[in-house]
Amino acid sequence: MNIIDRYRSWNTKRKTRKYLHNISRAINSRLESGRQTQEKWEKQFSWYEGIMIHRSEFRNKDVMESLKLIRDLNPTASMAIWNFLRLSNTGHELECLKPTGSKDKQGLDYINGLAKRVGALYGGGTDQLINVLNLTAFTQGAICLEVELNEGLNDVVDFHAVDPTSVDFRKDKETGEIQLVQKQSDGTYKVLNREQVFYQPLDPDIGDPYGRSPILPVLQVVFFQTEVLKDLKAVAHNQGHARFDISIVEESILKNIPPSIASQGEQAVRQFVGKYIGDIEAAFNKLKPDDNFIHPDSVKVEMTGGTSGKSMDATALINIINQQLVASLKQLPILLGLNETSTETHGTVQWQIYVAGIESIQRGIKRVLERAYNVALQVQGRQSKARLTFNKLRTTDRFQDAQAEQIETNTWIARVNQGWVDNNEAANEVVGHDAVGEPQAPVTASPAIASSRRVQVKCQPKTRADDTEDEYVKEIQGDWVLEVAVLTTKAADDFYNLLQNQVETYISRLEEADTPPTRVLVDIHRFMYSNTRKDLSDVPKSFIDWIKSNILTDEGEQLELWDAAGFDWIEQSAKIAGMYNIMEIDTELVFDDTNDDFLRSLSDRSRRDAELIQGVTDERVIMALWDVAFEGQYSITKAANALREDFAFSKGRARTIARTEMVGAARTGQWHSDKQSGMVIGKIWRSAQQDRTRDGHREADGQTKTLDEPFYVQNANEEFEPLMYPGDSSKASADNVINCRCWYKRILEGEEDKLEREFH
What we know:
Helix content is about 55%, strand content about 10%. The chain is an alpha+beta fold. It is flat, with a radius of gyration of 44 Å.
């Protein structure tokens, strides 16, 4: 190193030392030990056994007792408490984790056993104890719990819920430590062990360790409500009932004064009038409601009050009070029976806010109980920690959640495919851990499907179907039924359009082909004397060949049209059923509708069913035209009318195809979602048990198989065919799947006995 380099090195070190020295001086000159500020109660109260941290006047015991009274007697407040307790304690789960993060089974067994016997006073274990703690939190704004240990300090006797108003805080004058204390019968304060007695405040104020009651404002509202109701009672008493308005006609009395009385002077007249009025008053006071009465013309009787009187409309005032009650009780109006109009979005937001309030109190209960369980584990000599998790209150729609999650998942898949992120990054964002395998290549459509998309433009445009539900599908069991029922109606319209397009194509070819050639007509004439026309074997081969070469010339193209249309509709049905089905098993699971096996099964089903549908159409065309030819005097008009009127191109057939395809596809989605869940181990065939239920399907009722084994069901020829699920067309004949409404019942993990009973 030359001299210049050494100088540069020395200069750099010198500047670094100077910079660090300046930082050190700045830090040392600005930082001080200890606390600089004081709490307000340190200045206001004298020193005796430490500084007592007094409660505010709104949190003293008298106020809390009044709050308890109103909570239990006021109908609205009672309903608010009822709603809160039911919603805040919908169940919980306990875990016990070792310091390494792994599960401690023995520790979990211990605290589960402890959970059953603590809170003995309330008779329900931890679950009932949670209700008590929730009640004190919601009423008094604090949670207090004590862990009682046995004399040997090696086990828990009980968990005790403590009234938060019975404990106080003070600051030790020597150590400055904030102590939790309780006043004893002799007036002294006992310092409570903070390792066994836990106080959790709700929304404490600055410098104030006591919690704040969420429903404290209800006192003011209820007191005001009480005064208003008293006033309304008085108004109702005075104005709500019709009463006699009796007046004395002075002129009539004066005319009827006897001369002997009038001659005695003013005093005698006054006495006479007074007695006269008194007698009238006494007579009317003695009247019963149904008595008839007679009065002299010196008495005038009218009615007052009741409907003739007018009083203040109290409705607006009562509505204001109700609004204040709802706000003070931290409730939703609909939960208190005080409905108000609002949009669905507005209602959802209100519910989310309410649930957030419940969860904030649950977090306090969670902390206190986890600390209590940890003490129990500690005295048992275990280093594990307890974890308590409350069941979540759903604040959004399950279907919308699943859709949003599916969209997010597909977005991350696209990012991986574009090379923007790697597989592990995407996996951590979606499932929270590294990927367990390499990305799967997207499923490519079969050549049939790919070409069908190209030829589909030749179809007539889809007609717009009303969102009506197909009645046949609605009778099937399942959460997916209503949505698939709507799709079935739309699919039936689409299929009918396709059938109409086909029949018009065939008619145009009839017109181009004109009449059959002579050799075909000779064969027709020869067969006219035969009465057997049960199947295609009775139709002359020359006639069938003529139909196929002139009318049914584009069988492959029509097949592709059916494949394309069918795949579009069954894909929607299968995805909907799969999504709903997997959520029935576990709401945390999401159906993978991009799965290779699932999409391949739909592709195979679509192609297979298209071949069946088009094959039936071809047979119906041949038989319809053969009927015209067999009757003699064949003409294009008769042939065209026969095709238009044939069931093959009717709305009824389109509806049958749609029902078979959509329900069968839904069953496909169900089976694949059961398989993806990893929780379904078997299945039990359940027939629809209706008048039209096939004999083979009725006999299959109760047949039990593992999930990957097929059922064996008799077809119309009494031959047993394998079906993985009702509606499975992979190896079954048409008469075993068309219009089938059978289903299967899942057998889940833990229900192995149901399978064992079948196999033994």
